[in-house]
Write a structure and sequence with these properties.
The protein has strands spanning 4-7, 10-13, 18-24, 33-39, 46-52, 57-59, 67-72, 77-82, 91-100, 103-106, 110-115. With 116 residues, the protein is mostly beta strands. Strand 9 and strand 10 (103-106) form a beta hairpin.
Length: 116
Amino acid sequence: QVQLVESGGGLVQAGGSLRLSCAASRSIGSINVMGWYRQAPGNQRDLVARIFSGGTTNYADSVQGRFTISRDNANNAVYLQMNSLKPEDTAVYYCGAMTGPTRWYWGQGTQVTVSS
């Protein structure tokens, strides 16, 4: 059974918005941190935003002020509201969840494409 399921990617014009969702199975255990990462062709997978169980958030400088990460602990879900999208935001976005120091789970990725 797939343990992280992402949705919400798509094609949008520059300046537009998308909302990504990720739901984690309860079977993976208590989640300490959930985050969104992105990877463009030929590039490494980079942190976009993450949120800890207590609510603390981190954002990449490139998305600060435009993206907002939130978490629904009751539903084991994390969301990424992306506003003022730019072509350079185009990438595959991956949801990740950490349940322990060496226990990471990854979603399959969802494509976000921003046109000029």
